[in-house]
From TrEMBL, chains A, B, C, D:
Residues at which NAD(+) binds: 298-303, 319, 422
Any single biological process term in GO: S-adenosylmethionine cycle
Residue ranges, compositional bias (Low complexity): 42-61
Protein name in the entry: Adenosylhomocysteinase
Domain annotation S-adenosyl-L-homocysteine hydrolase NAD binding: ranges: 267-428
Cofactor(s) listed in the protein's UniProt record: NAD(+)
Keywords: Hydrolase, NAD, One-carbon metabolism
Catalytic activity: S-adenosyl-L-homocysteine + H2O = L-homocysteine + adenosine
Organism phylogeny: Eukaryota, Metazoa, Chordata, Craniata, Vertebrata
The keyword Hydrolase belongs to this UniProt entry's keyword annotation: yes
Amino acid sequence: MERWDSNVGTSAFHMPEWMIQFADQKQEFNKRPTKIGRRSLSRSISQSSTDSYSSAASYTDSSDDETSPRDKQQKNSKGNSDFCVKNIKQAEFGRREIEIAEQEMPALMALRKRAQGEKPLSGAKIVGCTHITAQTAVLIETLGALGAQCRWAACNIYSTLNEVAAALAESGFPVFSWKGESEDDFWWCIDRCVNVEGWQPNMILDDGGDLTHWIYKKYPNMFKKIKGIVEESVTGVHRLYQLSKAGKLCVPAMNVNDSVTKQKFDNLYCCRESILDGLKRTTDMMFGGKQVVVCGYGEVGKGCCAALKAMGSIVYVTEIDPICALQACMDGFRLVKLNEVIRQVDIIITCTGNKNVVTREHLDRMKNGCIVCNMGHSNTEIDVASLRTPELTWERVRSQVDHVIWPDGKRVVLLAEGRLLNLSCSTVPTFVLSITATTQALALIELYNAPEGRYKQDVYLLPKKMDEYVASLHLPTFDAHLTELSDEQAKYLGLNKNGPFKPNYYRY
Amino acid sequence: MERWDSNVGTSAFHMPEWMIQFADQKQEFNKRPTKIGRRSLSRSISQSSTDSYSSAASYTDSSDDETSPRDKQQKNSKGNSDFCVKNIKQAEFGRREIEIAEQEMPALMALRKRAQGEKPLSGAKIVGCTHITAQTAVLIETLGALGAQCRWAACNIYSTLNEVAAALAESGFPVFSWKGESEDDFWWCIDRCVNVEGWQPNMILDDGGDLTHWIYKKYPNMFKKIKGIVEESVTGVHRLYQLSKAGKLCVPAMNVNDSVTKQKFDNLYCCRESILDGLKRTTDMMFGGKQVVVCGYGEVGKGCCAALKAMGSIVYVTEIDPICALQACMDGFRLVKLNEVIRQVDIIITCTGNKNVVTREHLDRMKNGCIVCNMGHSNTEIDVASLRTPELTWERVRSQVDHVIWPDGKRVVLLAEGRLLNLSCSTVPTFVLSITATTQALALIELYNAPEGRYKQDVYLLPKKMDEYVASLHLPTFDAHLTELSDEQAKYLGLNKNGPFKPNYYRY
Amino acid sequence: MERWDSNVGTSAFHMPEWMIQFADQKQEFNKRPTKIGRRSLSRSISQSSTDSYSSAASYTDSSDDETSPRDKQQKNSKGNSDFCVKNIKQAEFGRREIEIAEQEMPALMALRKRAQGEKPLSGAKIVGCTHITAQTAVLIETLGALGAQCRWAACNIYSTLNEVAAALAESGFPVFSWKGESEDDFWWCIDRCVNVEGWQPNMILDDGGDLTHWIYKKYPNMFKKIKGIVEESVTGVHRLYQLSKAGKLCVPAMNVNDSVTKQKFDNLYCCRESILDGLKRTTDMMFGGKQVVVCGYGEVGKGCCAALKAMGSIVYVTEIDPICALQACMDGFRLVKLNEVIRQVDIIITCTGNKNVVTREHLDRMKNGCIVCNMGHSNTEIDVASLRTPELTWERVRSQVDHVIWPDGKRVVLLAEGRLLNLSCSTVPTFVLSITATTQALALIELYNAPEGRYKQDVYLLPKKMDEYVASLHLPTFDAHLTELSDEQAKYLGLNKNGPFKPNYYRY
Amino acid sequence: MERWDSNVGTSAFHMPEWMIQFADQKQEFNKRPTKIGRRSLSRSISQSSTDSYSSAASYTDSSDDETSPRDKQQKNSKGNSDFCVKNIKQAEFGRREIEIAEQEMPALMALRKRAQGEKPLSGAKIVGCTHITAQTAVLIETLGALGAQCRWAACNIYSTLNEVAAALAESGFPVFSWKGESEDDFWWCIDRCVNVEGWQPNMILDDGGDLTHWIYKKYPNMFKKIKGIVEESVTGVHRLYQLSKAGKLCVPAMNVNDSVTKQKFDNLYCCRESILDGLKRTTDMMFGGKQVVVCGYGEVGKGCCAALKAMGSIVYVTEIDPICALQACMDGFRLVKLNEVIRQVDIIITCTGNKNVVTREHLDRMKNGCIVCNMGHSNTEIDVASLRTPELTWERVRSQVDHVIWPDGKRVVLLAEGRLLNLSCSTVPTFVLSITATTQALALIELYNAPEGRYKQDVYLLPKKMDEYVASLHLPTFDAHLTELSDEQAKYLGLNKNGPFKPNYYRY
């Protein structure tokens, strides 16, 4: 039996009252839904906590202050000093950012409102380690509104928005994070969240697994009181499954990365738009009539192919999995091996999660002006390292755009040095971040409130009913009206009127 | 733990040598792939064995012969009389039909060729109960070529093609089936397959569960020797799960209805085309500019919506499941309740699997000329019964097309009396039937050859590797070229080079 | 200066009051818009008056009556005998057909209502020669309602619906036409329309040019009183331009074939749907994943390509015109020469208007099972004659479907023997016929009412304002709401608020 | 007769030998086709010569030099001083820019190669007034290579790239232009091009009409030697038609703005991509599920609608022209009046060419967060002026993005202050500029070489054959292979094998 199937039985699962009636929800938070004004920082880049974070920027200029936050003595306006941020005085600016983000995250705001009576996280002591952005702040303050105590560190040394961290600290959240931490700072911050006198966490929210790792290494006894881990990143989830396999996972963990709603938005829907955006912003190219090969026809590849086909490109697909390959055929794409089209295509896009999909040999055979980029998980899909040889000249022609020039003058256009195009050269819409944050909040609520025995020391997917609930909270944005089952219909289908509506194996 | 997750662990699973190398398969059977010449009979209609089968027809006219086949004494050219068909003399015509079908079912023909050395079904004694058509004949003869002995009855009293049954009998397959059986004939035929002196089945291939039911009822001891059941229909699968729940399932059963490949072709890909075909053949309407509401955004609904949008219709969607609802939004369809648009739409299509989705109240409010049809599983999605009232006049204007006329002269156009539009008013392409038949053959091979203990007395989904294999056998039709993992890549991904390539929970 | 530009100056052109306000038209005829119930006969096939008309059929069986209508003495219920139809007693059935068609032709019905006060055709004596179908009857009776006297013959010896002709005769229209005329009958009927004592036509409505030809040949003096010719077919228009070139055109003629609205519906919109319908009805093939080459990227080709791409086919295009070729590129189709893809494609569709686009050499190189069909104007696009050689075997496998079999067993599937697929194997929606009939009616009104000197002895396109008016009359079907220019906006744009809205060279 | 129809008769028209064989052109210039490296400057913004040009930038920093170029004494390396640019020393950098542009303008480079023997512009003395960019430089140097002498000024005081101007001067082209001219400088530069001792222009290439205006005003006698004017902008073309109407146009003029190829690329194809790009770059919004209304369904509107529909938006259309309205219906868009949807839409896009399409009243009724932008010709489509009232607060949140805030807190997001979104917030691909420049070059060749009498003192559209030639020169970029007519086919169609292939009224 595969560990992946460790879903809790749906019949054993009951949602609290305040969650139930999503068919006719009021649209009270739908009033200010549009992401406008500032580029949002992506949430999902945590390949490692020391990745450089290309687009991160402070809104206000604080570069003149060279003192390390660790050496400063700061207090918020209430005299509290249990935090460590760059500059508490930036709080007001950060608060405004958070307020704008609130307008664009209607689901979390709806959650605050619905659960305010019941306080489903009352008693929860959550330690979190994520990017610190306005969107995360909305999440953290939502957890607070639901009754939780939180302590928070950054999962990436570059990605913190200092003003937002200041605003959280001003509001009384113990935040330990600033932009430009050293590695030592990084672990120090995490430790300050965990190692507190008179306070012990009973829930973990992690993004990348560093916080979980630290507690395993330094404070293994802490797990006795911990009710569960919620992990969002591919990397962190992978680590958890390894722990589980090794029999070392000592609390339930929830893999929210693979929930249906989050997956569809992070991959299919988001990439359908960001492939066009990333290519345009970097190259100003015209899509019409271009020949493109997309390597990999999973959700990301499906999104890229659909968008480019719609813009008039001629798209070829490569695949290793015959089922996805057959889907590509039925969707109208010629299925080829990369070598068959490498000489003729204008653009090559990798979306495989694999390594060395585009090799130096492929790069040698591309035509002049060919554009190469990566939309997949791994930085190694394109063998960029193989291009660092003396006979090739690199020319940086624009931010994120390199021309690699062959001795005969041929140029290959490499975007973002083979890193993720959509994170490096595009932005992640707040709506996508809202899906993720809502999923995290619900996973925390579920793990914290689950009766004894529902979850064992294993890695679980988000219960389908919770997944459906995340989706339902986002429907008002589209003025979308859900139909409710009649009693007779529910009986006929053998379903509860409030879901879950599909068996676990349903593919969407 | 949900029973639906009863997949065999992929790590424990090995494919025989002859299956393995699908990446570079030769295309020897790709030569005559096109379905041409005759309307194929649909395979999947077995709602019950006595449903009328609207498009069924004999190729040759044998109506003059009124004698019951049970009363005839017939022998094939080798003197064999272990069969019961309408007229053994029609064998030659049927053989030609089978030969045409062979050209359109390249996957089964490839299977014959690959497995001819090994004979993976050597020793298998298969009793089958399906529609008897040219496509089924290709399946039966493939099973024979792989080493099996087969006995066969029809799963529907109307759907047998007499000429094909004759051809099978002539080739030595004991077939008991003709077009227009009585219910008594139906069970007699099944019994003649099962109850044979000196022969006892060890495998069951069923479509609808009638054969399985008969053995349970009459010959329960037979299960001692039976290695497994392969069931294809929704109805039959439902029965098996009920048996399993009740603890009465005494052999492993394989639910091939829910394999990925079959599902996508039966639902998404097939319906994307047949919704247009069914509407055109019945009404000659123009799609451009029409307002349509599609009830249900599962695979069938997704196919219908995509096709109609592409033809210039304006499409609305209703849903009960918030996840599917959010997908509809992201795909560009307004999500409404049926009442919101019922007065303005030109066409209503149900694809829910639910009952009374379109009620008499809805029908009363539709505008004049509105077309109503059903693409879903159930006959009860449209409450047709509610239209059988004295104040409404029914006028049959064409085969499968009724005008229901209100007292004020308003006409509602009801297609196929609310039965499945795609089966009643369209045809199922042979390519779709080929996917199903290949899935059945591989399921039989797997169950028959599985080592002790791999399968218990439960209902299983087809192992993903088998599902992938079905897909791979159909790629040559599209001249599609699969990429093979390098050793290094397979290691990096932690995959076997020959699959399975995805975790069980993967959604495609 | 090209004769094609002979549009009347738009500034010199005024519409009558009753036409003007189309922005807010009431939707009184929108109540029963759906084509249902019977297959409509196509209107546009008149390649010659003796073409066989494959789908023509009488609704009632009158084949037992072998007497020629010319030999019968018939009177309608009012005692009138100025007509010649198959059987006046079929009038009632025909009337019902006409009533159904009226519901599907809202634009003509709106015209009747709007113009009923003014009678813009008062005094017009129209002689017509078209197919005689329910749709034409709606046109003829509309002309009558607008004040015209009409006499009518058929433009094709097979296409008359006898019941409809009877209904027209019963209502007092002198109709001379029946299904299955001899060539002698054909000209006799035309002559009976023209050569009447005490009645001389002053307008001609022709489809194919035979009526015009007859008057030129037999009664040239009649042109002195004729105000104009309205011609609908490509063939007839071609003849008129030849007359004009030769200086022999002695009255103004209006080419309604090339009006914008009619062209878009006859070609782009109609073919986008009928290519799918024609292929499905003949072959039951699946479109997904199929490789298709479309020869010609004019309106018909654009429609075919868009539809097949949307259904998941991989589409290649051939073109001779570089502008259309560039459009194909920008729309995402690979532009090839036929030879480049002839061995790999599954379907070949010609839409060029050219001859020998698919040659015997191409046919020799096609793969087994390849489907060949024609959507273009000419019967000679596929060199079908070259296939009538002894070494090839023809096998008729279904109506309109031939297998042509090469000595090595290869089969090519030829549809409709190379004739127009959409007319032979599909149906023309009534909505398309409504566009054409409305265009004809407006052209007659315009020519009849034009002030001296507006039109000379030349061939004209329909004035743009009339073209716009045809479109506006069809918008209510879609519940479409046109925006009206404010006075200020009209002034800013230099336009009349009621149109025309575009310069003559505008391309749409 | 409308002046718009003033096309030269196609039969009177012969192309020179070197143009003819475009079906099998070699792809020698296809080697480096991709636009990469720098944002190109748009060519088409010349609403007036003093418009601010938002994205214009020098590549190198020359701001430290405050001396007016008119006061400087500069010589190029050959000692020539007949030019006036910012800094001749920047020539090398500018040359590199031109070389990159050459790779992206294959059609002009092909023209150079084909015409190098014949020198079709030998003896031509062209005075030009356009934006001075790398793409224009490729055009100017092409004209030189074809035999012309050129003198050049800028048509906009902000748009000159100083480095490119320097490179042209260094190569011996008398260029008078720099970034940041005063209005006095602007006319001085034009005068320096025209008013030269011993040199008198015989051809004019204008963009906006300022050069033409200057000659009319100051040197009317010069027209005696001028063979023709080629004008590209809407504004300039409008001026020419006014001159013609007033009987004051004293030489032939060619309106290249309305050639088929240029129109399709400037409008349909370019806007299909730039609407997405412009919206993403300014707002980072997600398109999926958004409700959008597009005002105007001409080429620009069609492009916007197609793109947004493909990205999953729900699109409504408003129109005044019933023909375009019917097209919108058939393409699957609901046709509404703006008021019907103003409260519900997330985005409003104007593409009408009209004024006050979006009024203050509309703006008052929009929902919070609604985005408003303009893709049409006119700056006045959105009544931006009406928003400059005291009760509304404007907040600039990003470059080109304003929040207009109502007293109740509602925000409307206004992009580019209602100016053209695609020019302000997106870039024009070089491929589109290449189409325009090639059209200009061919128009100059045609007017210069036309035999006496072919063109009179009127405004002409580019002959169709030339239009086709422009298209054919761009096909190699797509590796597109044109089919050639056989002699037999050409005869059958009554066409010349080398085109033109369509009548003038053909709509594409």
